Amino acid sequence: xxxxxxxxxxxxxxxxxxxxxxxxxxxxxxxxxxxxxxxxxxxxxxxxxxxxxxxxxxxxxxxxxxxxxxxxxxxxxxxxxxxxxxxxxxxxxxxxxxxxxx
Length: 102
Hints:
Elements: E1 3-9, H1 11-19, E2 27-29, E3 34-41, H2 45-52, E4 64-67, E5 72-76, E6 79-85
Parallel strand pairs: 2-6
Antiparallel strand pairs: 1-3, 1-4, 4-5, 5-6
């Protein structure tokens, strides 16, 4: 069975997430907004949700699950949707422009 790592959304970002409108497509998430949780084996994301929903480890809206293959899913009011870690764009290096001396 696949292993799923749960990432818990911190409380301050959770409040923002709860009131944000639903947007379709991939959700970009920041690592700093999450705390690592337990790793649990389950057949699918929904099997995991069913297994832990009445325990202290229940998955809440905004929490992430990471499949052992690296695929992220975020739990929203409508179910699990695809997510991706935020990766900042590299800062472009300044290119040297030759200066002509006259």
